[in-house]
Amino acid sequence: MVLLFCMDMKADSIPGTKLRNESFCILHTTRQLQCIQTQTVVAKRTTQKQQQHSTEMAAFTTSQTHSYYPLMRFFISFLLVFASSFGSVLSLQVMSDSGNVLPANQTFRPGKEMWKLKRVNAFLKKINKPAVKTIQSPDGDIIDCVLSHLQPAFDHPELKGQKPLDPPERPRGNETTETETKNYQVWTDSGESCPEGSVPIRRTTEKDVLRASYMRRFGRKLRRHVRRDSTGNGHEHAVLFVNGEQYYGAKANINVWAPRVTDQYEFSLSQIWVISGSFGKDLNTIEAGWQVSPELYGDNYPRFFTYWTTDAYRTTGCYNLLCSGFVQTNNKIAIGSAISPRSSYNGRQFDIGLMIWKDPKHGNWWLEFGSGLLVGYWPAFLFSHLRSHASMIQFGGEIVNFRSSGYHTSTQMGSGHFAEEGYGKASYFRNLQVVDWDNNLLPLTNLHLLADHSNCYDIRQGRSNAWGTYFYYGGPGRNVRCP
Q: Spans of biased composition, class Basic and acidic residues (predicted)?
């Protein structure tokens, strides 16, 4: 009953606010309180029976006191119990106004919660644009079909009033020029599609934002580095990279798995990085691949994602379409939606083709997904160094290791198996290529391998006629050699 009392308390009955009397009338005490308040005795005004009246009044008062004594004792006891246990009650699981359970050690503060919810709702209003059609995905996602010129990118001052650009010339040597539509994503299993002139956008919900460890960083990566000190913030990698030249794009086929992520605030991803800058505060990156992130998406499905930053993940950039940046042009691919099908251990293997390249005419960086489907582009003006070219290309996997249990995470990279297990067991990248200054796709030269902790996640590279340059990578995380 005490918990129910706390759940139904008004905001101003929390410590530090004024207590209202009516808040105590919840546990079926209203009628009793009314009796106490209305039992008054009117003294007779005759002087002749004043003494008799005083005697009767005393007897009446004594009678009433004895009849109400159990009630008053119960009520006073209740108040004492409530006052002594109030703090512990608030430490129980209490529902916030948003419907989420507050952590056990967090005090419920209505003012703070209301302020947070106002910020969340303002963000959702900004990022979720009006839809001409809404599609319910079988996996629970809501896909909004938004008119192309109303998508979040066009909130940017340099894009206001504009429309998406026409497709650019693809790099020479690109063999995936077909435009056949395949079901790469779960939401298309519904049989619904977005009409021409609109783009499918995964709706961001209040729960999505409230899951974030820091709301101000929702939709952004934690800061990371891309050199050998990359584990400074818990980020670990197994990657192949090239540097030493000017790069204008990259291409690869990425094996798709659903690795286990053991901590809500960790993630596991496989992607292509297009990088430029001094690897300090001016680092520019463009990224695309698949990712499992319970914090961002609320589940453990691998999802197609994009990312960009122009200041080393500090204040610029975001995942997918969660800020004004990436301009989507395709009405068949929803960025942030779950990829289907997925590979299985010792079973069927599936991969997705990705290509990022710089349009020679306008200088924007375009993204191709699957069999020739142009997803959209990152406008050149978003960047500083990448306005010109990239100085490094990376391919591979990344996880976050928060050591929340005091030892190395068991979050998996790739398939969760080491590279030595090979096809059908370890995850792979194949057909790795880069784009040169003349818009040609070329094989890699001067390549390097990097595994931050090879006992936890490793990488092995190879080459064949069928797969060109390829590599296997990944691992289980914590094991006897990775404590």
A: 156-181
